[in-house]
Amino acid sequence: MEQLQRRNEKLERELEKLREELTERDRKIADLERQLAMRQQNSTTSSKPPSSDGLAGSQRERGRRHKSKRKPGGQPGHRGWTRQLVPPERVTRFVDLYPEECRACGQDLPRSGTGALESGEPRRHQVIEVPDIQPQITEYRLHSVICVDPDCEHVTTAVVPKEIEDTFGPRLVAWIAYMTVVCRMPRRMVQGFLQEALGIEISLGSTQKSWEEASAAVEVPCEQLSGDLKNQAVLNGDETGHRTNGAKRWLWVLVAKMYVVFKIATTRKAEVLVALLGRAFAGILCSDRCPSYAKYHNGPLQYCWAHFKRNILGALELARTTEAERFCRDALALHARLFRLWHRYRGSGSRPREKITRQELILKVIPIEQKFFALAERHLDSSDRDVRNLAEALFLNFQRFFTFVDHEGVEPTNNVAERALRHAVIWRKIMMGCRSEAGEVAVARLLTVAQTCRMQNRPALAYLIEAIRLHRRGQIAPSLLRRH
Known about the structure:
This protein is α/β, with parallel strands linked by helices.
């Protein structure tokens, strides 16, 4: 009996050990499944950029979910768009064409138009072409003149004016900066374009020098924009990773009503906001739920609903329990109701005639707010980690999700900042970041000018040309501040 008892105890110990190993394996399998599911997420269910879809994650659905029965192209009743003829004063040259023979009887007609009996005004047809471009080269000859005073006879040589000291003119320098920043062309591509298309030989060092001159020319306007940020009623902010000689940096963007400001910093912390906005900001900050904004700003914040929706969709993909799925589906249903009301207020929904006022929006959103709050409160102790985190984020920051309801000029999403960053992110991917701190400053300034001009429907190239021309004369470039 003792032998059987000892054997039984041994088997129980082995069984307990196997149970522990099985529990550990189940935990590891669940962890690996979660990691695999997270890697398969795309830009619609996570914070991954759209460019990674299909590479670092599964391809997102594109186009319509259900195939339309309509034929491609313009639909019946669609107003067509055609190129408008330019006015005669802009036409370079006119060519008159006359028919050679009558299409009815074959009778020869006057080919020169002399003596022809015309019917009505001629039909106009315009062809637009790019002429052969030849660089305009101006040679300044510096003469040396002998003084007419017989006691002096000193030889004086003319001095090159400061505004033409550089080998390249303001327009060419602006072109180089424009192609590099707005068109996102690498320096070697800019060099090749200038050589092949314009017949201008230029070194890589000269393209860099032109870039730096353009940055110096817009220094004051960019400082004016940065200094005006603290006066804005609403700002949207976002940040993304950047590289300088392989070192980690952060590219920040703050979007105001009429301009955009970029800054490259070594950190993602609140100290960057202090440098841009001062110790305290009196307006409303809109962002994703990055802790830096809440740490800096004690006033009203607006958290991005688009980010939160992606988080919910991501949690739904990873859900393993009925409770988690129910939370995600209930949250998405409330989100859809909330944005239907917002689109009705903006008059941009599927029923623009049913537009509502701000007061109606506030009253209709109250029940949705209450349901969101109750949903978050019920799931604060959820066994699902993602659901618990989302419920806590909604419960603790509840007011920050609904700031847009009560304040004019505040959007429920942070899409305006994300769109401003998109151009800069594509530039970074092509250029592989910066090489120096001076390069960081130049990138931030020129991105600021490019995106601000775009927001103001202002030609960025024309602005750069004027800024560089004034800079060479020792004058300040035109301000980019617009109040309306």
